[in-house]
């Protein structure tokens, strides 16, 4: 697994989230992060609403879990690791919990539905 920092960029802007204003700062942050050291896993412009911002932060907090699970599955498929059933159960458990978080944002009618 590479040693990149995982980054999620969130810009809180009511006008930006509606497409009424271009998000220059978030885009610029993404551009200046060296690709060899940072992996941007998410970039979103959300309304300045606490609940939506909290949901996105919660989702992003699981990014490393997902990355780790995908790495384990890759190892499994490459034949480098034992315990296939346990690894698949762990990956599915992570996916199920993230699916619940993801759909909670959709149920509130927020913009947190798309990745």
Name some characteristics of this structure.
disordered C terminus, two-stranded parallel ribbon, flat, alpha+beta, 115 residues
Task: Describe the protein's architecture and organization.
55% of the residues lie in helices and 15% in strands. It is an alpha+beta fold. A two-stranded parallel ribbon has the order 1-2. 10% of the residues are buried. Residues 101-115 have low confidence and may be disordered.
Concise summary:
This protein is α+β, with helices and mostly antiparallel strands and 115 residues long. Helices cover 55% and strands 15% of the residues.
Structural class: alpha+beta
Q: What spatial order of strands do you see in the largest sheet? A: 1-2
Give the strand content: 5-15%
Helical proportion, percent range: 40-55%
Q: Helix segment count?
A: 5
Question: What distance separates the N and C termini?
Answer: 23 Å
Q: Radius of gyration, Cα only, in angstroms?
A: 17 Å
Q: List segments where confidence is low: pLDDT < 50 over at least 5 consecutive residues.
A: 101-115
Shape: flat
Order of helices and strands: EHHEHHH
Tell me the total number of β-strands.
2
Biggest sheet, in brief?
A: 2 strands, parallel
Mean pLDDT: 75
Secondary-structure topology with pairs:
Layout: E1 5-12, H1 14-17, H2 24-32, E2 38-46, H3 50-60, H4 63-77, H5 84-107
Helix pairs in contact: 3-5, 4-5
